[in-house]
């Protein structure tokens, strides 16, 4: 079977020249001093430059001057560009978890998450990256639920007003979809995945 047609607007990658959905890409703009700024939400003013959200594509764009060509002039690249993008995407994931908590679409704690799993109420599990893999396996069992491992227990805990949180379940809906989208971009930029998943 052929791949389904992508939904929504497509953008052309300045490095690979392939057209992809915006959700699989990262937008960049130029700051006042022609410094390159990642626009992870896609809302900064100015002409955007789009790049596939993949570690190898980012590296290629930096080495081969793709940003300067697209901007038709000199561009100042921050030395920690990839780290900036990863930090920004983690922040966006944390924001989505916070939004889910405020909307009543998230619970944390082993027992509450297990209850949601048993009742098929969890669309996504956000697990602390520094949590125990064996405890995670005991919690999920054989259930096929997407896992996001982007935030530490301290980061997750701060969303829920605690010192730490290890297990978080997110209900089905738009917030869960956005969270998975951001986690997919983070995994791809980090070199963990090819952009197709988390």
UniProtKB/TrEMBL annotation:
User: Mind telling me which CDD domains this protein's record contains?
Assistant: YlxR
Q: Name one Pfam family in it.
A: YlxR
Q: Where is the YlxR domain?
A: 11-86
Q: Which domain of life is it from?
A: Bacteria
Under NCBIfam families, the record lists: PRK09190.1
What is the name of the protein in this document?
Answer: RNA-binding protein
Q: Which organism is it from?
A: Teichococcus globiformis
Taxonomic lineage of this organism? Bacteria, Pseudomonadati, Pseudomonadota, Alphaproteobacteria, Acetobacterales
